[in-house]
Amino acid sequence: MYDVAIIGAGVIGCAIARELSRYEINACVIEREEDVCCGTSKANSAIIHAGFDATPGTLKAKLNVKGNAMMDDLSRDLDIPFKRNGSLVVCTKEQNPEYLHTLLKKGEENGVPGLEILNKFEAKKLEPNLADDVIAALYAPTGGIVCPFHFTIALAENAFANGISFFLNNKVEKIDKKDSCYEITTDKQTFTAKAVVNAAGVYADTISAMASKENIHITARKGEYLLLDKSAGTHVNHTIFNLPGKMGKGVLVTPTIHGNLLVGPTAVDTEDKDGTNTTEKGLNSLSATAALSVKDLPMHQVITSFAGLRAHEEGGDFILREADDTPLFFEAAGIESPGLSSAPAIGVMMAELIKDRLHLEKKPDFIATRKGILNPTALTLAERNELIRQQPAYGNIVCRCEMITEGEILDAIHRPLGARSLDGVKRRTRAGMGRCQSGFCSPRTMEILARELPLAMTEITKCGPKSEIALGHNKEI
Amino acid sequence: MNTYDLVIIGGGPAGLAAAASAKENGIEHILILERDKELGGILNQCIHNGFGLHTFKEELTGPEYASRFIKKVKNLQIPYKLNTMVMDVSPDKTVTAMNRTDGMFQIQAKAIILAMGCRERARGALNIPGYRPAGIFSAGTAQRLVNIEGYMPGKEVVILGSGDIGLIMARRMTLEGAKVKVVAELMPYSGGLKRNIVQCLNDFDIPLKLSHTVVDIEGKKRVEAVTIAEVGPDKKPIPGTEERYTCDTLLLSCGLIPENELSKNAGILLNPVTSGPVVSDNLETNIEGIFACGNVLHVHDVVDYVSEEAASAGKNAASYIKNGKKNSKKTVTIYPTDGVRYTVPSSIHPEEMADSLTVRFRVGDVYKNCTIATYFDNELISKKKRPVMAPGEMEEIRLEKDILNSYPHLSTITIKIEEA
Question: Model pTM?
Answer without folding.
Answer: 0.96
